[in-house]
Amino acid sequence: MITQQIPHATTISALRTRVRTWRDDRLSVGFVPTMGALHDGHLSLVRLAKAQCDRVVTSIFVNPKQFAAGEDLDAYPRTLIPDAEKLTDAKCDLIYLPTPEIMYPDGYSANLVLKGPAIGLEAAVRPHFFDGVATVVAKLFNQVRPDMAFFGEKDYQQLLVIRQLVKDLDFPVEILAGETGRDKDGLALSSRNVYLDADQRARAGQLNLILKDFAAALSAGSTVSASQATALAKANEVFDAVDYVEARCATSLAELGDGVIDRRTRVLAAVRLGSTRLIDNMAAKPPS
Ligand code: PAF
Fold first, then answer.
1. Annotated binding site for (R)-pantoate, which residues?
2. At what angle do helices 12-24 and 129-144 cross, to 10 degrees?
3. Do 191-282 and 8-178 have the same topology in CATH?
4. How does DSSP classify residue 256?
5. What is the DSSP string of 24-52?
6. What is the annotated localization of this protein (predicted)?
7. How far apart are CA 182 and CA 125, in angstroms?
8. Side-chain-side CA neighbours of residue 260 (13 Å)
9. Is 2 within 8 Å of 83 (Cβ atoms)?
10. Which residues pair with 255 in a beta bridge?
């Protein structure tokens, strides 16, 4: 339970009442959806939202629809009290804490099924994932009705999926992206990093270096196939398993040919250390 001093809503009607008072005062509303276990990547999104909007709502909801059987739904870190304190320090105006019963009451039946940027990469390994994310984000948008919503580039495919969702379903919300927060060694901040033991944590920092080299090779004019082969070989040396290391079109995530890149490109990877999956991505500029 969090205290009354920290403004929060646990029902859709309490959320809407608060947001309506802001709207009556002509204040703009920013929204940062999260699953909690907040780190500085989340808080930088809240700070970005505060800079862009008059009021900011952050939701914390561990969405069962985006976990498959056997994934870490039960083990997913739940740290409500420290999360609420961090959000208060970041000047978040309202924390929205719906329960699974509120989001998916008995008889709930609507689930989105996506194509486009939701095909391949993450979806090749987690086929349920983006349909679950889109379903909960669509519900949250309808509940909060924000002017702007903020997503991290760390989950780059998710960001493109949400942009497409907003376009397809005509949500009147602008999507803004926040840069990936990183530890000192460059490891992308993630709530799942707490699962890593000391040896795994030391190796995890290699992922962003492998992607940096991959992006630099592409920008220097190396072909996609040659630079990808080098990145893949390095990833296979460091990690227990590699789900993918790829260069894709930065706007559609379409596959690229074997040749030299000639458009906005993103390099993306997913690897495993034990049972922990790490994902990361970064931009690669076309050769000048
Ligand atoms: O990125 C996340 O934390 C989740 O996928 C999101 C967008 C909050 C939906 O549950």
1. 66, 158
2. 50
3. no
4. P
5. HTT--EEEEEE-S---HHHHHHHHHHHHH
6. Cytoplasm
7. 24
8. 9
9. no
10. 248
pLDDT score, position 20:
98
User: Which ligand 1 atom is at minimum distance from the Cα of 63?
Assistant: 10
- CATH assignment of 191-282? 3.30.1300.10
The one-letter amino acid at 146: P
- 62 alpha carbon to ligand 1 midpoint, in Å? 8
**Residues lining ligand 1, CB < 6 A?**
33-35, 63, 66, 133, 136-137, 155, 158
Residue nearest to atom 9 of ligand 1 (CA): 133
pTM score of the predicted model: 0.97
Q: How far is the CA of 132 from the centre of ligand 1 (A)?
A: 9
Calculate the CA 156 to chain-centre distance: 7
Element (H, E) at 96: strand 94-96
Q: Which residues are catalytic?
A: 42
Contact 286, 261 (CB under 8 A): yes
Ligand 1 atom nearest the C-alpha of 62 is: 10
Query: Which residue among 79, 137, 189 is best mutated to probe the pocket of ligand 1, counting the most ligand atoms within 8 A of its Cβ?
Result: 137
Q: Where are the domains of the chain?
A: 8-178, 191-282
In CATH, what class is 8-178?
A: alpha beta
Ligand 1 center from residue 74 Cα (angstroms): 16
Q: How far is the CA of 221 from the centre of ligand 1 (A)?
A: 35
Task: Please tell me the total number of residues recorded for the chain in this structure.
Answer: 288
Identity of the amino acid at 157: Q
Given the CA of residue 59, which atom of ligand 1 is nearest to it?
8
Q: Give the closest residue (by CA) to ligand 1 atom 3.
A: 34
What is the predicted pLDDT for the residue at 6?
Answer: 79
